[in-house]
Amino acid sequence: MPAQITEEILRRTIAGTETVWMIQLAGSQKSVPLDPEAAEYFVSVDVLRNVLVSRTVQQVNTMIDRVVVTASEIFPQTTQPKEEISAYEDSAVEQTVNVLMPDGTRAKVKLP
After folding, report:
1. pTM of the entire structure?
2. pLDDT tens string for the chain (112 positions)?
3. How far apart are CA 46 and CA 60, in angstroms?
């Protein structure tokens, strides 16, 4: 939920320095102290977006990993024979040829 910082309070005591931020929640006129331990907060929409996208990707990857493990437990693993390279694929290997140009220079040309 969106909130706006309305006040920053710096308290210096014998125990040390403490900073407290007062925030106003959307739809409220009252300021309350922000408790960083009770709620997660983000300083900008871009930071929020990056965190949420990262978490979403992590969750999707976790679900996919679980599916892969479950599938490997339920379905037997079968090996598929490797396909042989066809004559067409053999001819697709590039060759390099040296060509003498009309001006006397040599050039390397790759032929399919």
Report:
1. 0.52
2. 888 899 999 999 999 999 999 999 988 999 999 988 888 888 889 999 999 999 999 999 999 999 999 988 888 776 665 665 555 555 555 677 777 767 777 777 776 5
3. 21
